[in-house]
Design brief:
Length: 532
Amino acid sequence: MAEKGKYLVLVGAGALLGSAATVAIFKLLPRRGERKCTVVEAIELNGMLTDSQYVVTYITLMFIEYDMFACDLLERRRYQKFLEGVNHGMTGPDLLMDEIVTEQLTRNIQFFGFENQKKVVSSYVVVIGLGGVGSHAASMLLRSGVGKLLLVDFDQVSVSSLNRHAVATREDVGTPKALCLKKHFSTIFPECHVDAKVVLYDSSSEDEILSGHPDFVLDCIDNIDTKVSLLAACVRRGLKVLSATGAGARADPTRIRVADLRESTNDPLSRSVRHRLRKYHGIDGGIPVVFSLEKPKAKLLPFKGPSGEEENPSDYQIVPGFRVRIIPVLGTIPAIFGQIMASYVVTELAGLHVHMEPVVNFDMDHYNVLHQRLIEHEELQFGTAMEVQRDPCTYDILFTSYSVALLLDVAQHSYELQRRMLYALSVDKSHPVDVEEVIYIAKELWHCRSARDLSAKDVGRGMWRSVNELMLIRWDHMKPASVSNLILLKFTEADEHESRSLEDIKEQEPEFFARVTSVLKRAELDFGLRSE
């Protein structure tokens, strides 16, 4: 018993000596002017500690006046206590009831609004292919608050992939990409339910991967056969899918676009995918893809075997049909592809439908032609083109009471000038439809094709559209021409439109009426003509 008492005394003395040494070190260190730990926080800290920790910390706090040592310890203990209490079974909008989760997602909540962020947190997204593109897409989906992720890839992290992978380190080399991401994700957003499957997507694993009604599927696969199989399965199951085409051998981030698969250009992978989907599955578009307009800057490298001599790549395939030859990759480009995919998906999940820039190859001559046709049509149909062209004698100088009075005096013997001036005063001068507005209307609103083609399956490749049969006309004949009242139609369609009333169109073609109305409302919002 005496020996035990001596032992306890020695342990206590050692603890006191260690505390004294710690105090001495902190006294010698320069003060950083950081905030003091309050008495309330000190009491909270003491309540978190065990008896032995309490003794040492109490003595330390007495000497260093509750400084940052105690405050840092308090924050660590608070976070540890939080992690111990994390309910990993909590899913959906309930996650936003947690203060730390809400704080972590506060910028998203400010951007989308609380209710829309709840939609993101309640969502389930599948990411297939976890290389340079897929790892960045999955990482930002996680950081954006997606509540459930399924990560799928059969491959492992390699040293050469570290130039483009989102989170992998040298320590992860040789581990499955799916498990690598899951490990890192658990330290970033532990509340997200992350499943990882180290499997190859094919017909045998389709149900295992695509069941569970995911809100979105991200196709980040670089193998043509597997990509086609996945996209066809998503279309067959009615799942929303976003596909990435070739990110290798590119260097210009400003030429990356999101558009329908049928509009993707300059990309060998997307051409092959389009052809096979159409030939073998009868799918002719309707799938959004991320692609680059840039022509590849490099080609596949020749395959060399262990001897250093060029050999047949198929002799070394581990998985049949998968590429063995290497394509040069600038690591920043697949990362941007992945970021774009995540941005597209998160905004869709939140209900913020972003209108991506259409793929159109028109130049100023094309837009000038459309503008001139609009001017001529307005003159012919309505007797004036005042709303769609700037007239120096009526737009630039006449909108003061003095200039109006002066011009009326000069124009007292000119009926035509009086008519033009009075008409100019009656229309909206704040948004005249000049060439800049024509570019916005034709390109941004109608994608340089007829408003009636937007729901058609075969509208042609966006890079090769023509203005030969197109013109801008008023949607509502009773309202002046403006950015929110002009639609793009073919000549024959324009003639038919002007022979009908809006009530007739609304009754006989409700879908077309609703679609056009929605697009024109977007124009009003973009130009500040109305609030949401």
